[in-house]
């Protein structure tokens, strides 16, 4: 399986194509594009039938081996078996089986309409990012051991990504994590989750400032290419291709668990921010999974909803990006969106490059086909099954209340955005699966507002705020940051 950049000139594409292992540890392609397979591997009906019996780990192996053809199959099987265990994904609700890894729960079935919740947040940090990040930790350790190399992961987080990365990389040989977060700006739960890690390879750095200050530090350090190379700096952000592939697996799993025959179709509603999760759904559909609709649910930061309604992609400025009660979807631009646009414009890398150049210089593009627009490909969006919707703080509170009353479970704020939008997109005869992207305990402040009581905490999380914390506080000073990294890597 060869990978190409969404921006590679056609002449360069053939010669510059790379294998899975080549792009595993990297981020953007050298030309600024994102990596995608040269062709999407196809799944046959016979394969789908056979996969109905498989455990999650075995299913993950079958799908991954189509993308990671350069990793020996026995190694890949060992990696997926080690990753997807009931011990790692143990934070299930009463009545659900941890061995299913992503258990499904029917919320409503009326007439031909059916609404189902797929739990993706039973991993160590109680958010769906564990689904991919846990595999990434094992893949990184495997790849680094082969090259006797080391990697220093450097990033900034406002909550979910940083903790998922730390729990995936803790104790891994050859890997250190330097994670910046805005000092005293995360929830008490999120702070405790990250800072209570005592592993010597995890470095929590609380920056005196807001998230953007932390993010600016990451950019400044990463722009120093010499330092970056010497210190073996890498990232695990949402454009990482292996993360996207790992997410493809649960779309297959959700489909297989919700259907009895390959004649049936399902739809998915996905609480969306950077378009990483739903991009994996798009890839599953391109591989032949019988998906009817892929519905992107956004919060007040509705960049994606605007595109899927109008064909206009308009990134937001920092001042226009709202801090909401579903904070992991508070994005100003969707960093994986280029992968879908590349397919939408017929895999034309010249056009993709021009469109995203326009995003960088003019803040967006317009594919509505109206006079003066940049193209008319918006008319093709329906062919790819995409729909969208938006949910506000008020909707979120109401949905959390309704779901508690009607179905007897407490959902988190991001999942609430998903349920709200899913209900607007139910179709007769097509099961709608909503992806549960976090557990309520992570966003207790809003649960308390909605229900007047605390969200239940999974076992073992009862007193995490009381655990000893390990972190350093730093002013946003790039030189101090670099010295701190160098001192701790010894490189
Ligand atoms: C990251 C995250 C999202 C958004 O996922 P994308 O892949 O960025 O679209 C939604 N909900 C939760 C809880 C998250 O942590």
UniProtKB/TrEMBL annotation:
Its EC number is 4.2.3.1. Its cofactor is pyridoxal 5'-phosphate. Keywords: Lyase, Pyridoxal phosphate. Residues 2-84 form the Threonine synthase N-terminal domain. Residues 98-345 form the Tryptophan synthase beta chain-like PALP domain. NCBIfam families: thrC. This is Threonine synthase.
């Amino acid at each position: 399986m060869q990978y190409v950049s969404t921006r590679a000139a056609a002449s360069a594409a053939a010669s510059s194509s790379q294998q899975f292992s080549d792009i595993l540890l990297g981020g953007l392609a050298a030309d600024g594009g994102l990596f995608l397979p040269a062709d999407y591997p196809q799944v046959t009906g016979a394969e789908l039938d056979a996969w109905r019996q498989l455990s999650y780990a075995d299913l993950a192996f079958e799908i991954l081996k189509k993308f990671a053809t350069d990793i020996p199959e026995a190694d890949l099987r060992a990696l997926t078996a080690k990753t997807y265990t009931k011990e790692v994904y143990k934070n299930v609700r009463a009545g659900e089986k941890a061995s299913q890894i992503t258990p499904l729960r029917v919320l409503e079935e009326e007439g031909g309409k059916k609404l189902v919740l797929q739990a993706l947040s039973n991993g160590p940090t109680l958010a769906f990012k564990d689904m991919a990040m846990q595999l990434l930790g094992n893949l990184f350790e495997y790849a680094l051991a082969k090259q006797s190399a080391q990697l220093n992961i450097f990033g900034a987080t406002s909550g979910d990504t940083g903790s998922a990365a730390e729990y995936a990389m803790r104790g891994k040989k050859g890997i250190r994590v330097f994670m910046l977060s805005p000092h005293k700006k995360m929830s008490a739960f999120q702070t405790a989750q990250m800072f209570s890690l005592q592993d010597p390879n995890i470095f929590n750095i609380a920056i005196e400032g807001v998230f953007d200050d932390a993010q600016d530090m990451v950019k400044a350090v990463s722009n120093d290419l010499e330092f970056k190379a010497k210190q073996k700096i890498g990232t695990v952000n949402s454009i990482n291709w292996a993360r996207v592939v790992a997410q493809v697996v649960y779309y297959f799993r959700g489909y297989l668990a919700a259907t009895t025959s390959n004649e049936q179709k399902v739809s998915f509603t996905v609480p969306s921010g950077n378009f990483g999760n739903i991009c994996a759904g798009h890839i599953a559909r391109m591989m032949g999974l019988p998906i009817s609709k892929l519905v992107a649910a956004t919060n007040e930061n509705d960049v994606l909803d605007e595109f899927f309604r109008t064909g206009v992609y308009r990134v937001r400025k920092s001042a226009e990006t709202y801090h909401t009660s579903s904070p992991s979807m508070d994005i100003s631009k969707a960093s994986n969106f280029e992968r879908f646009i590349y397919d939408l414009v017929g895999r034309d890398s010249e056009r993709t490059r021009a469109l995203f150049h326009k995003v960088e210089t003019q803040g967006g593009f317009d594919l509505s086909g109206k006079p003066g627009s940049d193209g008319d490909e918006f008319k093709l969006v329906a062919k790819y099954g995409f729909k969208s919707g938006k949910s506000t703080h008020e909707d979120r509170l109401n949905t959390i209340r309704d779901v508690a009353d009607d179905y007897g479970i407490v959902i988190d704020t991001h999942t609430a955005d998903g349920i709200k939008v899913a209900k607007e997109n139910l179709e007769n005869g097509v099961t709608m699966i909503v992806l549960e992207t976090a557990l309520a305990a992570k966003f207790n402040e809003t649960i308390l507002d909605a229900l007047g009581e605390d969200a239940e905490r999974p076992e073992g999380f009862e007193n995490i705020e009381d655990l000893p914390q390990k972190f350093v506080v730093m002013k946003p000073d790039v030189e101090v940051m670099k010295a701190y990294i160098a001192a701790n890597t010894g490189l």
